[in-house]
């Protein structure tokens, strides 16, 4: 009896998560690290928050903003601001690690976790990667298992205030367990793919995955 799974909460959400856990598609045991491992190798701490991008900071109002969800999902859709806010809202606390060697601790984010987002758009079994496209033309790729990490979040607020335009407002992604170039600012489109493809920096010599603890900085590493 004690071994029986609890059936009463077998919502679609728990079914999806259980299926993914069975397939090993969610990373496990990666989020909590000993404090001694908090700063990845080759990184130094900063207290400010540097701004890094391709030099074009698009000005997108909340009213103009859209998130197009395309590719291998059952619910191919476009979110506007209200649709994003109608998904479950979560607050997270995480560190930033930029490949240019600065790290910034203790950032407070609010938005929609990628797991809640995935539950809403329902990826097809063939989907193994995503390509993110931003309003400035930037692209970056992630394995679906990395996109679905427990602390990955589609962010609209920082410290309870709207995310500043220079940091990717109105909406950016934050994937804390990878280098920050994977965290697309001014997020506009997410395409679900049956194979991992290279985004902007990945085509220009950066690593396809970018794990800071493995120092996956450049593709020839
Ligand atoms: N749309 C977009 N997102 C982007 C970039 C960019 O040029 N355009 N640069 C990436 C890089 S290299 C880094 S380090 C972080 C910087 O985010 P920040 O300016 O908020 O520190 O954004 C990432 N996301
Ligand atoms: Mo970066």
UniProtKB/TrEMBL annotation:
Classify the source by domain of life.
Bacteria
Please give the InterPro entries that the UniProt record associates with this protein.
Mopterin_OxRdtase_euk (IPR008335), OxRdtase_Mopterin-bd_dom (IPR000572), OxRdtase_Mopterin-bd_sf (IPR036374)
Pfam families under this entry? Oxidored_molyb
Extent of the signal sequence: none
Spans through the membrane: none
Q: Where is the Oxidoreductase molybdopterin-binding domain?
A: 56-201
Instruction: List the protein's name.
Output: DMSO/TMAO reductase YedYZ molybdopterin-dependent catalytic subunit
Organism of origin is: Pseudorhizobium tarimense
């Amino acid at each position: 009896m004690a071994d029986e799974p609890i059936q009463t909460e077998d919502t679609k959400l728990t079914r999806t998560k259980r299926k993914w856990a069975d397939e090993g598609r969610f990373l496990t045991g990666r989020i909590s690290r000993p404090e001694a491992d908090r700063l990845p190798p080759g990184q130094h701490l900063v207290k400010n928050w540097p701004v890094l991008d391709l030099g074009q900071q698009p000005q997108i109002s909340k009213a103009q903003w859209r998130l197009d969800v395309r590719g291998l999902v059952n619910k191919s859709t476009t979110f506007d601001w209200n649709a994003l806010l109608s998904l479950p809202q979560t607050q997270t606390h995480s560190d930033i690690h930029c490949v240019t060697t600065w790290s910034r601790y203790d950032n407070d984010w609010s938005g929609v976790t990628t797991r809640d987002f995935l539950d809403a758009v329902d990826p097809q079994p063939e989907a193994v990667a995503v390509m993110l496209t931003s309003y400035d033309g930037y692209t970056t790729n992630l394995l679906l298992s990395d996109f679905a990490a427990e602390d990955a979040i589609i962010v609209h607020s920082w410290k309870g205030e709207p995310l500043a335009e220079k940091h990717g407002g109105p909406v950016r992604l934050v994937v804390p367990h990878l280098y920050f170039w994977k965290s697309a600012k001014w997020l506009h489109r997410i395409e679900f793919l049956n194979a991992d493809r290279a985004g902007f920096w990945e085509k220009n010599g950066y690593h396809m995955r970018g794990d800071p603890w493995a120092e996956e900085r450049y593709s020839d590493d």
